[in-house]
Design goal:
Keywords: Calcium, Repeat. This is Calmodulin. The protein contains nine helices and two strands. With 191 residues, the protein is mainly α. The chain folds into two domains: 88 residues, EF-hand (Recoverin, domain 1), CATH 1.10.238.10; 70 residues, Recoverin, domain 1 (Orthogonal Bundle). It has a two-stranded antiparallel sheet with strand order 1-2. The longest helix has 16 residues.
Length: 191
């Protein structure tokens, strides 16, 4: 039998391997969530979680479910929907919600948001408005420079121009709402 080969020692001249992609948990898979969506839900839950007196797992007060959904950018659309959600996540009216109950409802809200063309259109306009500062005009190179400065990112001029070329299909012109929406869809931000 041939001897096993030894792995070569890590060389300091080689770049470090990229971190492995986070995998979705069983709970996320059961609720048809990606790892990124699961992470968003975990963050929203953690914002309002408190220690449970009956188990080792944290809970959120039922009164904070609405706020947690707002943090996910998937708020209840009416008082009736909130009442239905509350009854679903806290069926025994204990005043607290476990992560497992919350993730199921949050997943439904996220899926509904991604499948609602009107909600998607509204999100595109909100994001577009951040670049144009709410003005009805197209996004230009100066807008990209300003946003990069506001985010304290040092983005080279050629990269900003490449962003415009990507959005416009080749030219370094300005970007309209439809082109912006296309970029967002290609990037996977909007469905």
């Amino acid at each position: 039998m041939a001897p096993k080969r030894k792995q070569p020692a890590a060389s300091s001249s080689k770049p470090a391997a990229a971190a492995p992609k986070k995998r979705a948990s069983k709970l996320a898979k059961d609720n048809d969530l990606s790892a990124a969506e699961e992470s968003e839900i975990q963050e929203a839950f953690a914002l309002f979680s408190v220690p449970s007196s009956t188990s080792k797992d944290p809970i959120i007060p039922t009164s904070d479910v609405r706020r947690a959904l707002i943090a996910l950018n998937a708020p209840p659309t009416s008082a009736a929907e909130l009442a239905e959600i509350t009854a679903t996540v806290d069926p025994d009216d204990s005043g607290s919600v476990t992560y497992e109950h919350f993730v199921a409802v949050a997943a439904l809200k996220l899926h509904a948001k991604h499948n609602d063309p009107e909600a998607m259109k509204e999100e595109v306009f909100k994001a577009y408005g951040l670049f144009t500062q709410g003005q009805e005009r197209e996004i230009g190179l100066n807008d990209l420079r300003r946003v990069a400065r506001e985010l304290r990112e040092e983005v080279p001029e050629n990269v900003l121009k490449d962003m415009l070329r990507e959005a416009t299909g080749g030219g370094v012109g300005t970007v309209g709402v439809e082109e912006f929406a296309g970029v967002m869809r290609r990037a996977g931000v909007f469905g």
